[in-house]
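User: I'm putting together notes for a lab meeting next week and I want to include a structural view of one of the chains we've been expressing. I don't have a solved structure, so I'd like a prediction I can at least talk through. The sequence is below, exactly as it appears in our construct file.
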Amino acid sequence: MNEDAVQELISRKPELKSKRDKLAAMKAGSYCIHRSWGFGQIRDYDAGDQKLIIDFVDKPGHKMDPAFCLNTMEVLADDHILVRKQTEPEVIQEMIDKRPADLLVELLKQYPNNAATGVEVESVLTRVVGEGAFKRWWTRARREIARDPRIASPARKTGVYVLREEPVSMEEEILQDFKSTRSPRRKVGLAEKLFQAAKENADFRDPLGEVLETLDAIVRESRQLTEAERLHAAIVRDDFARLLGRDPGQLDPTTASLVAEARELPEVVAELPAAYQSRVLEVIVEAFPAEWKEVAFNLLKTSSGKFTSDCINFLLEHDLAEEILDTLKRWQTEQNLRAPLLLWIVKNRNSKRFRKIIGDLIAPRLLSSIFFAIDYEALQTAGTRRIPLAEELSDDQELITDLLAEADAETARDLANTLLLNQGFEELTKKSLLARFIKQFPTIQSLVAGEAEEREERLLVSRESHDRRTAELQEIIQKKIPENSRAIAAAREHGDLRENSEYKMAKQDQSVLLAKRAQLERELARAQVTDFQNATTDQVGIGTIVTLKDLNTGEQLEYTILGAWDSDPEKHIISYKTPLAASLLTHRIGEQVSVRIGDHENMVEIVGIRRYVDEAQG
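Assistant: Thanks for the context. Below is the predicted structure for the 618-residue chain, given as C-alpha cells.
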C-alpha cells in the first residue's frame, strides 16, 4: 500500500486513523506473519478490491482486507530473523547448524529491552528451523545457550530470555545466586548445578572450596531441612569434596551416619531426587554392618522406577540371587509385591541377566498379584491418575500370553473374572485384555455375555448420589454445552476453519462434553434409587454395616455397604459393586470369608450386622 491507498482507506474508515503507521508498513515486498496462516510476503495491493495480495506458504495469492490484518497480522522488520531466513538463507542456516546461541542473540535484538519469553522464542525459532527438526535441534541448542555468557536463560519455559548488557558466564551466574540466597534448600539445588558446570569446566575450581564449606555447614547445622533434604545435601557435599581431592569420610556427619540414623529409611529414600537414591546403596554396608542385607531388601520392597533396578543389581553384586528369588516368592504369597516392583518384574521377564531371579515368577499367580495391585492402587488413587502397571499390561501384547502359558482353563476363567471386577481399567481396556484371554482359552467367551448382562442390570443408588449425578448432567446440558456452542460460533468468525485453532479446540471440547453427557444419561437410565429400608440384619446386604474380625490379628474392622455410586474410603463406606463388598454379600454372622483388605488377603469372621438406616436416623 502506498500513501494514497492508506489515505483513501482512512477517509473511508476514519476509525483507522490511529493505525496509519501500521497500514503504511503494509508495503509490497514486506514480509509478515499471520496468526492463522503463518509466514508470508505482501505481493501487491489491489486498489479496485481494496485488498492486500499476500503469498503465504500454503496460500499464495491470498487476498485480505488491510483493516482485518491489523489485528491478525504483523509486518516484520527487514532485519527480523524470519525475514533474514529468506534474504540471507546461507547465513541463517550456518547459525542454525553451528551457532545456535548467535541465532538467539539476533532474535532477542528484535524485542523491546532485548527480552522475550520462552514461548515467544520457541514460536519464532520453530518457523526458522522447521517444525520437524525443531525439537531435537532445540534440545541441543539450549545446552549451548545456557553456557553463553551473553544470554540469561530462564529456569522455566514460561520464563524470559534476556540479552545481557555485560556477559556473565553460567558458572558465575549460578555462584552469584548461591551466595545471595539464604534458603538452604535453594543453595543445595544451585550447588548441584555448580557441580555439573565445574565438571565440564576444569578451570572453574577456585570458588568451590567456599561452596563446600557452606554445604558442610548446612548438613551440620541447618534445622530447616527434612531428613531426606539433609541427606541430599550431604551427598552433594561429598561430590564437591571428591572433586576437590578431599576425603568425604572426614566430614561430619558422614553420609553413612545420616543413613544409619534415618528413622524410616525407605520413606527418606523415596523423598530423595531419583538421581540420588542409588547413592544410599553405596554406604549401606558401612551404615548397617550387621543388618545391611535386611535393610537392602526393605528398600527393594518399597522401591520404584530406576531405584528398583539399582537395588536388584546391588543385591546381585553381593551374590544374593537365590535370596532375591526366595524373598520375591514370599512377598507374592503375602500379597506384598507392590505395583512398582511388579512392573519391574514384567518389564525384565525376558532379560538373561535377571532370568534366574524372576523366571519362576512368570506364571498365572503373578497375574493375580498384578490385578490385585492395580485394583488396590485404583481404590487409593483419586481422580483419573494413570496407573503404570495397568498401562504396561495393556500395552505389552505378549504379557498376558506369557503369564497364562502354564494356566489351565479354570484358572484362566478365575483370572478373567477378576479382570472384569477390577476398578483400575476402563471398559474398553477390559474388553481388549479379555480378548487376549479368549484367544488362549475360547471357553472364557461366556464371561463376555455374562458381563454384558451384568451391565444391563439396574444400579441401586442412594438419593444423594443420584442427585449429584443428575446435577452434573444438568450443568453439562444447561451451562457447559451452551457455553461451548457460543465458543464455536465465536471461533467461526475468525475465518478459515481449517487453520482456526480456536475452532478446533472448541470442537474437541464439544466431543468431550457430548461423550460425558451420553455416559451420565446411560448410568442414570439404569439407576434405581433406594433408601436402604429393605436391608435386614439376617445377612450382609446393601444398606448394612458389617463388623469383621481379622482371624490373624484379632483386629475388628467395620464397613458400610451402600449404593453403586457411594464411596468414602476414609469413613469405610464402600459401594456394593466393589470386590470387597461383593465377597461379603449374603454371608451371615459367624461365617468366615476370605477378603482382601489393603495389601493382604485375610480370613475374617462376620461378628455383627446392623442396618445403615437405623444408624443414620439415630
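A couple of points you could mention at the meeting. The two ends are 84 Å apart (CA to CA). Residues 463-492 form the longest helix (30 residues).

User: Perfect, that's what I needed.
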